[in-house]
Amino acid sequence: MMELNASCDIEESCSTQNMLEHELWPLDPIDPKNAKFPCCLVWNPLPVVSWLAPFIGHVGICREDGTVLDFSGSYCVNVDEFAFGPVARYLELDRRQCCFPLNLSAHTCKHGYRHTEYGTAITWDDALRTSSRHFESKTYNLFTCNCHSFVANCLNRFCYGGSMSWNMVFSWLDGPSYLGYYPSLYS
């Protein structure tokens, strides 16, 4: 008589929590010389405005391959052409602080339903692609719909840091303070 052996006992070999988490593949190193900043927020100064108020600038967010995306004008999301010149500062974001469920019932964040309703992403680049499509139909407005709004929209799709409260004002007030007061976080 033939005896059957299980090749993998799911209950014993891996916990449910590990099954619900994505495997995050390694990223290429940050390469400022070639303008590649995988999973980073990036910043550069605005001519004249940043001379008068150094904490104000233009922000963008980068894909996993390091390509910079930024909302720089009506119906325009730049890909790898950062408006106003090269990246002056960057802040690497931790992908483990994002909610990327394998399916809609596998949310790990406290905003499960709201996150699904807003637009859950399954990968970093998926969230950026969805936000880019959303902003390609937006009219740019310096005060209400700008590069900070674009980055906040991306962070909300990630549910970054367990929060879906990212907005233009929060990213405008707190984003530059991260870049300005923690020099060890950027180069």
From TrEMBL:
GO cellular component: endoplasmic reticulum; Golgi apparatus
InterPro entries the record matches: TMEM222/RTE1
GO process annotations (BP): regulation of ethylene-activated signaling pathway; response to ethylene
Pfam families on file: RTE1
Protein name according to UniProt: PPPDE domain-containing protein
Organism: Trifolium subterraneum (Subterranean clover)
